[in-house]
Protein: ATP-binding protein
Organism: Altericroceibacterium spongiae
Amino acid sequence: MDTSIVIGADNSGKQVTFDIEELLATRLLVQGNSGSGKSHLLRRLLEESAEMVQQVVIDPEGDFVTLADPFGHVVIDGATYGDREIAALAVRIREHRASVILALDELEIEQQMRCAAIFLSALFDAPREHWFPVLVVVDEAQMFAPASGGEVAEETRRLSLSAMTNLMCRGRKRGLAGIIATQRLAKLAKNVAAEASNFLMGRTFLDIDMVRAADLLGMERRQAEQIRDLERGRFLALGPAICRRPVAVKIGDVRTSSRAVASSLIPPPSSSTKDMEALLMAELEELTPPPPPLPPQESREKLEERITSFAQIEEDPESPAPSPEESQSIIDDVLRELAQEEGATYQAASGLYQDFTVRCRMRRVSGTKLGMTEFHRRFAYAVGGLHELDEARQDSAKRLGKAVPEDLLAPFMLIVKAALLEESCPDDDRLAYAYGTSSSGRIRRLLDHFEKNGLIVMRTDFGGRRTITVPQLGVTTAAG
């Protein structure tokens, strides 16, 4: 079986071939500045070898998803899965020998690094019976194996660098053939780059990158200048899978294209300044205005004055007093009214309780039937929206809430209600309002506290969507 593919042609027009079987044992490093043709080279390599070997592409920019339809690759959107799902997918990919593209373009850089690291580590740790040969292509490898620390967390950098090191240093015995492409060798970790035996060096301008490229190609440093003069789509090639001496290669044509913006010039539309201004400014006034600021908290004097005015309302002696059942219903109505008032959770507990008792007296019910502690709990139930549940589920939620202190109960009830109704997971802003704070940090610590005490289990996918499970009730919110 012929395991060679044509990658392009040399300066004399002679075909330059690439031995894929040899590549599986010797790995490949591609370097070139942006616009030098790296992605075109990788696309040519993937297209020509698609029927020979399983392929896995780590695609941080979403450039290679167009391979899916013509060549049968499965596109995995990294933003829609969490850690466990990504690892499970990687294991199944090795088991079923599926060619896939892991698209990470919807993620921030740190999330891209973490997702790719978990995915590569799971490919590496697959059971021995699934060690089939795979080409693993990592575009923009300097992101996943940086030579030095950047703005990402140190834990994420180490996790990603470890996965890339395993791929290039120890992956061969497990059937993983690493193909890494980078814009700059100086930004790529040396222990990762050093494991490649095949090289395709494209145009680069910085002296440090030209010198390193020349060293890898076995060229004298005075010859490194020719790397700066390479045309787009031309590379200097060397390695056991290509040729024994450096040769200039013009990469051949490809059948698919990138989703990237076209680099050719496109003139702007020939509209007048007034017409363009009208298009840009149209209907801006109809956009939803920002939410109004929270109302300032009433002073003690104004609150006492309002309470006194309510207390002076004369009761109708002919109106019968409500029954005990009606009284409880009225109390629930008053609590919901209080909970729905703007800024209610930011008010002092004593002021809320006084307001509650006055409103109850206005409806001929003694608000003092609820002590302060019971008022806190029932107000939390109202803020959490438990009145939207049927009686059975309300009882389940309240039984679970007995283990939660009164000051933490409202955000917890909000989560429980969302899980019971399979609604979207409450975001930090809603939980912060229920808690009576504007600090997202306090909410993160609160959720950690709930999780450590076994009240909830959180899961966040790489797209930042959160779901929360309430294990004691066996229910989970929708992603939000």
Q: What stands out?
A: Residues 311-315 have pLDDT under 50 and may be disordered. Residues 154-170 form the longest helix (17 residues). The two ends are 52 Å apart (CA to CA). The first strand starts at residue 4 and ends at 9.
